[in-house]
């Protein structure tokens, strides 16, 4: 299952969908299904997804964290073997999954590392580059689990790893919480260098407030390892029908 959390991404969504390597995945033995979790977009994102043959689900409210949790619930319910997740703004290269998936083992998670020499020189501001390094360093200091890019939006999950995820994030702190959960639940995490390029459309993340929220989530999960919400697979998040 290819999971795309979407909120007003009509500018880049169609291009992203056209670059997903379905044929190569099939040749490698993977059957690919694209599932869009829409945060109640006000543009044509849902229409583009539906016309492209994707499964389009509308999340209860909005926020990337909720979208990913809804996607995980769907993956568990429909018994997908693995989930590939990345943003639909054309910052990531879907083709990178062709090199990452063969390395995925049972119960494992692979995180794409953007902070390498493969990053486009204009893909990230200096402030964001510094912020990403500081947050990654803080995460490792708090939990001791190696990760090279804690805010990366490109993750690949084995089905057994998803079942262990216990999350309650609603927004952009979700990646940091997934990392923390790997440390708490003893989920094996691997890092893989990926390409990263400037996004299409208006940015939704990058302020000091966003960085503070991410750091706050890391600290909270260090102090309180188990969130209040029920574990995934318990049917706590209801989906709205696609309209």
Describe this structure as you would to a colleague:
This protein is α/β, with parallel strands linked by helices. The chain has 9 helices and 7 strands. Strands 3-2-1-4-6-5-7 form a 7-stranded mixed beta sheet, with helices on both faces. Strand 2 (34-38), helix 3 (45-51) and strand 3 form a beta-alpha-beta unit. The radius of gyration is 17 Å and the shape is globular. Residues 230-235 have low confidence and may be disordered.
Give the averaged pLDDT, no decimals: 91
Largest sheet, if any? 7 strands, mixed
Look at the helices and sheets and give the structural class: alpha/beta
Cross-sheet strand order for the largest sheet: 3-2-1-4-6-5-7
Shape field: globular
Residue runs with pLDDT of under 50 for 5 or more positions: 230-235
Number of strands: 7
N to C succession of SSEs: EHHEHEHEHEHEHHEH
Give a quick rundown of the structure.
This protein is of the alpha/beta class and 243 residues long. The protein has helices at residues 10-18, 22-27, 45-51, 64-77, 97-100, 126-143, 159-164, 174-185, 208-223; strands at 2-6, 34-38, 55-58, 82-85, 108-113, 155-158, 188-193.
Could you give the topology of this structure?
Elements: E1 2-6, H1 10-18, H2 22-27, E2 34-38, H3 45-51, E3 55-58, H4 64-77, E4 82-85, H5 97-100, E5 108-113, H6 126-143, E6 155-158, H7 159-164, H8 174-185, E7 188-193, H9 208-223
Parallel strand pairs: 1-2, 1-4, 2-3, 5-7
Antiparallel strand pairs: 4-6, 5-6
Helix pairs in contact: 6-9, 8-9
């Amino acid at each position: 299952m290819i999971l795309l959390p979407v909120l007003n991404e009509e500018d880049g969504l169609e291009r992203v969908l056209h670059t997903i390597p379905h044929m190569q995945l099939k040749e490698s033995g993977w059957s690919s299904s694209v599932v869009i979790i829409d945060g109640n977009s006000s543009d044509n994102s849902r229409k583009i997804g539906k016309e492209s043959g994707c499964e389009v689900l509308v999340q209860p409210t909005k926020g990337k964290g909720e979208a990913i949790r809804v996607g995980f619930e769907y993956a568990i319910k429909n018994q997908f073997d693995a989930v590939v997740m990345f943003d639909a703004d054309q910052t990531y290269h879907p083709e990178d999954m062709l090199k990452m998936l063969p390395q995925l083992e049972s119960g494992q998670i692979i995180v794409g590392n953007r902070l390498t020499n493969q990053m486009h020189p204009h893909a990230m501001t200096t402030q964001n580059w510094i912020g990403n390094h500081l947050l990654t360093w803080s995460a490792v200091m708090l939990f001791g689990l190696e990760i090279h890019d804690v805010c990366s939006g490109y993750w690949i999950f084995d089905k057994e790893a998803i079942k262990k995820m216990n999350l309650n994030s609603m927004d952009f702190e979700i990646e940091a919480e997934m990392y923390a959960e790997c440390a708490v639940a003893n989920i094996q995490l691997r890092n893989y260098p990926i390409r990263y390029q400037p996004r299409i459309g208006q940015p939704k993340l990058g302020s000091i407030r966003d960085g503070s929220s991410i750091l706050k989530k890391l600290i909270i999960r260090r102090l309180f390892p188990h969130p209040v919400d029920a574990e995934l697979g318990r049917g706590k998040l209801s989906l709205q029908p696609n309209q």
